[in-house]
Amino acid sequence: MAVTTSLAGKTAIVTGSNSGIGLGIAREMARAGADVVLNSFTDNAEDHGLASGIAEEFGVTARYIKADMSKGEECRALIERAGACDILINNAGIQHVAPVDEFPTEKWDAIIAINLSSAFHTSAAALPMMRKAGWGRIVNIASAHGLTASPYKSAYIAAKHGVVGLSKTVALETAEEAITCNAICPGYVLTPLVEAQIPDQMKAHGMERDQVVRDVMLARQPSKDFATVEQLGGTAVFLCSDAAAQITGTSISVDGGWTAL
Asked: pLDDT tens for residues 26-55?
């Protein structure tokens, strides 16, 4: 039987998707034919405009639903309000950098809540819908830091390692069903937020753009090139396709060779 990458007729919920990686993944889901639900903790005209733009560009249904991923009850309510969830992309995340003994407790709690616990809550709410539909895909956006570590990022690394472990557990619990759960582990991705950091890095290091990108920002990424949000979206679409029906409980690195070192 021929495999297809079409996601027509499926509903994809993407958390943390009004910018950056999440928005890029939502757009690629829509390009593949899925109806999409965008999400973040804000609720303004720009958020809803993003959904309208995706609907018009790709000819799918697109909605924006506000939900604060730091609050478990709002994570679960997001899934319920969407009404359907064939595909769940757990992408929401934040970062803070500090030594362990100086790491603010409130920052630790927020990072664990948004980067890890939210994926538990949304998955728990989505699985009954997927089981009722007889099909489902969960894709958790982890990180190269879900497979390796760096100093001063204890909460982020703990959370992303947890996301990888959660993905394996959900995969085992659904292994005999038409439901898969996998993690994508990006390295450095060229998002608007990262792009905005480049001028400051150039000034701090006294380097030209190409040099600061290669030698500072991508020091640990052997390809010396950023991943793109479109590449991550394409990887997510693949994991949701028929071709990936037997790929579950694994982590796919999109990191230019970082975790090969």
From this structure: 999 999 999 999 999 999 999 999 999 999
Residue 1 inside a domain? The answer is no
Q: Is 64 a catalytic residue?
A: no
Q: Is residue 135 part of a domain?
A: yes
d(CA 119, CA 44): 24
**DSSP string spanning 149-205?**
--TTBHHHHHHHHHHHHHHHHHHHHTTTTTEEEEEEEE-SB--HHHHHHHHHHHHHH
Find the DSSP H helices in 38-191.
45-58, 72-82, 105-112, 118-133, 154-173
Q: Let me know: does 86 contact 135? Beta carbons within 8 Å.
A: yes
Contact predicate 240/137, CB 8 Å: yes
Q: Judge whether 261 lies within some domain.
A: no
* pLDDT at position 5: 81
Same domain membership, residue 137 and residue 208: no
Q: Please tell me whether residues 123 and 207 are part of one structural domain.
A: no
- SS3 assignment, position 239: helix
- The model carries a pTM of 0.97
Is 99 found in the same domain as 220? Answer: no
Cα 150 from chain centroid (whole Å): 20
Structurally, the chain folds into a number of domains equal to: 2
- Residue 159, token pair as written in the block: 């959370």
Tokens of 131: 């089981």
Residue 84 lies in a domain: yes
Task: Quote the domain boundaries for residue 218.
Answer: 192-224
Residues 40 and 51 in one domain: yes
User: How are beta strands 179-186 and 62-66 bridged, if at all?
Assistant: unpaired
Given 64, 152, 156, 188, the catalytic residue? 156
**Which strand (E) or helix (H) includes residue 230?**
helix 229-240
Question: 3-class SS at 52?
Answer: helix
